[in-house]
Amino acid sequence: MTEPTDAPRAPITYAAAGVDTEAGDRAVELMKEAVRATHTSGVVGGVGGFAGLVDVSALKDYRRPLLATSTDGVGTKVAIAQAMDVHHTIGHDLVGMVVDDIVVVGARPLLMTDYIATGKVVPERVADIVRGIAEACAVVGTPLLGGETAEHPGLLGEHEYDVAGAATGVVEADAVLGAGRVRAGDVVVAMAASGLHSNGYSLVRRVVDVAGWALDRHVPELGRTLGEELLEPTRLYTPACLDLVDDPAIDVHAFSHVTGGGLAANLARVLPRGLVADVDRASWVVPPIFDLVRTLGQVPWEDLQGTLNLGVGMVAVVDPAGVDATLAAVTARGVDAWVLGTVSTDDGAPGPDASAIRGTKGVDGGAVRLTGAYRTA
Q1: How much is the pLDDT for 39?
Q2: In what order do the strands lie in the sheet with 108-118?
Q3: What is the mean pLDDT of residues 58-65?
Q4: H helices, E strands: number in the chain
Q5: Residue 348 burial (C-beta neighbours within 10 Å; 0-12, 13-18, 19+)
Q6: Membrane-crossing residues (predicted)?
Q7: CA distance 124 to 87
Q8: Considering 44, 180, 188, 231, which has the largest number of Cβ atoms within 10 A of its Cβ?
C-alpha cells in the first residue's frame, strides 16, 4: 500500500474530480418546463421527486389489465448528433424506439422515463436532449414521468453522451395483438419510414467514413446535407397505430416495428408457425438515403435489407375487409401507407430467390418471403 505523502496539496472536491452538481441543477431548470408540458391530468406531483407518480385508477375498469414495458436506446446515431453538435432531435429517436415497441402489442403508453450519461454536464446540451424527448412524448400522449442525468468523467469524454429510456403501457388481456391473431388471408400494410430511423448506424457510419464524406457535404439526391439526412428523427407511429386499434371498421391482428434486423426479420416475429407473409419488394420506392449507402459502400442488397428499414418503419397485419380503412386512417395521420403483401399457409418453399426468413430473434414463428426487386428513385 502506498504511504500518503506529507507534501502540501490542494483539497480534492467532487468538482475537482470532474462532477459539477451545480451544472446538473441548471440543466434541470432549463428542461423542467418541457417535461412538465408532457404531464397529463393523471400525473401526481411535479418535477424533481425521487420517483414519478401517475394515477392508474382507470385500470379498475379493465377486466384483466396487462402492463407492457420496453426499454431501448438510440445506438450510435448519438455519434452523429455529437459530431454535428445538434442535440434536440435525438430524443424523438429515443421515444420512437421505446414507445412504438409498446404499441405493437396494442398497449396504450402510460409513462416514460429517460437516462442520460455524459462525460460532462453541459446544461444547454442536456436540456436540448430532454426537450426533444419531451416533444416526442407529447406527440404520442405519454407523460415523461422521470429521468436521470449522470456525469461520468473518465468513463466518457467531455462531449460524449448516451441516452436510454423505458416506458410502460397497458392493454386488456383479450386485446393483445400478435401472432395468435394472424391468419391466412390477412393483408400486410406498410407505414413509411421518415429515413434511417435509429438502427444500422454502425454500417452507415462505416460507409461514410471509408468514403471520406463530410457530414456537411450537400447531397443533391437528398436535397440537404448528409448530416441533416442522418439526423432525421425517427417517425412516431403510436398515434396512427392506436387509431387503427380504435376503429371498429378495422380488425388489426398484429403490428411489427421495423427496427434492427430489417423488415423481414421483424415481421416474422409476429407471424405464427405455419403461415408465411409474401412481401413484394416492388410495392414501394426505396428512399434515396438507402440507395446512397448501398452504392457508396457497395453494400449487397441482402446485407442492406437485413440491417436497415429500407423505407418501411411499421407494419400492420389486418383483416382484408379493413384494408381500405387502414390505408385511409394512416394517411390521415400524414404517413404514407400501402399494401406490402398477404399472409398464406406456409408450403415451405423458399421463394423465387431463396429469401424466406424464419425463426428470427429467438421467436419460433412464421416466415416471410421477399419477392420481386427493389425499386430506387
Answers
A1: 66
A2: 65-73, 161-172, 108-118, 144-151
A3: 92
A4: 11, 17
A5: exposed
A6: none
A7: 10
A8: 188
Domain ranges of the chain: 21-43+63-175, 179-376
67 CB-side CA count, 13 A: 9
**pTM for this predicted structure:** 0.89
CATH number assigned to the domain covering 21-43+63-175: 3.30.1330.10
C-alpha cell at 73: 436506446
C-alpha to C-alpha distances, 48 to 150, 186, 278, nearest whole angstrom: 15, 48, 50
Condensed to tens digits (0 to 9), the pLDDT of residues 262-299 reads 999 999 999 999 999 999 999 999 999 999 999 999 99
CATH topology match: 21-43+63-175 vs 179-376: no
- With residues binned 3-state (H G I as helix, E B as strand, rest as coil), the percentages for the chain, rounded to 5, are 35, 25, 40
Look up residue 124 and give its three cell numbers: 444547454
What's the alpha-carbon Rg for the chain, to the nearest Å?
23
CATH 3.30.470.20 fits 179-376, yes or no: no
Q: Where are the beta strands (DSSP E) in the chain?
A: 43-44, 53-54, 65-73, 108-118, 144-151, 161-172, 187-192, 218-219, 224-225, 252-257, 275-280, 285-286, 312-318, 337-345, 357-358, 367-371, 375-376
Residues 6+ apart with CB under 8 A from 195: 229, 232, 287, 289
- Do 321 and 178 contact (CB within 8 A), yes or no? no
129-140 pLDDT, tens digit each: 999 999 999 999
- Tell me the one-letter amino acid at 377: A
Instruction: Using the structure block, give the residue that is written with the C-alpha cell 436510454.
Output: 164
Instruction: List the single range of 146-155, 246-255, 311-320 with lowest mean pLDDT.
Output: 146-155
